[in-house]
Amino acid sequence: MAPRPHSLYVRDEGAGPALVFVHGFPLDHTMWDEAVDAFAPSQRCIAVDLRGFGRSTPAGAPLLSMETHADDLARALDALDVERAHVCALSMGGYVALAFAERHAARLRTLTLVDSRAEGEDEAGRAKRDAAAAHLLDVGRAAFAREMLAKLVAPSAGPSVRARLLSLIEATPYESIVAALMGMKVRPDRMGVLRGLAVPLLVVCGEEDVLTPPALSRAMAAAHPSGELSLVPGAGHMSPMERPAAFHDALGAFLARHR
Ligand code: MLT
How far apart are the C-alpha atoms of 35 and 57, rounded to whole Å? Predict the structure, then answer.
């Protein structure tokens, strides 16, 4: 018997060309709430919970690969009757979007990578993923969330963004956090996917992002034949939540040029 397609939870709002939002680690679709509110008047916004996150089905495996998430996304689009979509994805979501671009290229209209990277994990990075998984189990989710938060946002980030991020991380099952770390650990380099990407590319990055610093975004935009770059002042790694107005301006202008 063929395996049952994985069902992802999606917030699906608005009408018009489909605009898919993919969240980062270890968060869920609600990180895009402001973006969905901003774009739903002109686009069909589809904000997904990746497998193991938010309201989607549990991880169910010790490793969730970027390819698994990409294939889940393609099946979710099938179920929603969406042939092609603009995809906007943050950090780990960007790793998933690049796997999607590699495996389901014909389904992409445009790609927006936000505070992300295209390089695969090197040996030091792989060791850090193992250490992070062990550390999580050692200190527990609340301490893990507090430590992550210090790197996720710029010093100027407000209390409500900080509180939302803490509660999102604390609500994510241990199993999913570890499976995501193991999946990111084995992800391959996809700079080649960016070089060969046949659709428009926008790269957005918080100027104060310490996890995926602006230099990585410059390199990604430069790798694509017509890649566009937008740096968000006063934002760290969570630019869409920290500076939503600037983020929406950048994404809106890009989408208006590539409808
Ligand atoms: C994210 O925000 O999704 C993470 O920083 C990705 C990562 O750990 O590489």
Answer: 24
What is the torsional sign of CA 209, 211, 212, 213?
Answer: positive
Relative to the CA of 91, which ligand 1 atom is closest? 3
Q: How far is the CA of 29 from the centre of ligand 1 (A)?
A: 15
Dmax of the chain from CA atoms?
A: 53
- DSSP H or E run through 12: strand 10-13
Ligand 1 proximal residues by C-beta, below 6 Å: 24-25, 91-92, 184, 211, 237
Residue nearest to atom 6 of ligand 1 (CA): 92
Report CA torsion sign: 220, 86, 74, 241.
positive
Strands 44-48 and 10-13: antiparallel
Report the alpha-carbon distance of residue 109 to residue 88 in Å, rounded.
11
Distance in Å, CA 258 to ligand 1 centroid? 28
Backbone angles phi, psi at 173, to 5 degrees: -60, 145
Contacts of 131 (CB under 8 A, 6+ apart): none
Report the C-alpha dihedral over residues 53, 68, 218, 21, rounded to 10 degrees. -50
pLDDT above 80 (res 3): no
The predicted model scores a pTM of: 0.97
Q: Rounded to the nearest whole angstrom, what is the distance from the C-alpha of residue 199 to the centroid of ligand 1?
A: 24
Express each pLDDT in 110-144 by its tens digit: 999 999 999 999 999 999 999 999 999 999 999 99
230/206 Cα distance (integer angstroms): 9
Distance 163 CA to ligand 1 centre (A): 18
Task: Give the residue whose CA is nearest to atom 7 of ligand 1.
Answer: 92
Residue type at 243 in one-letter notation: R
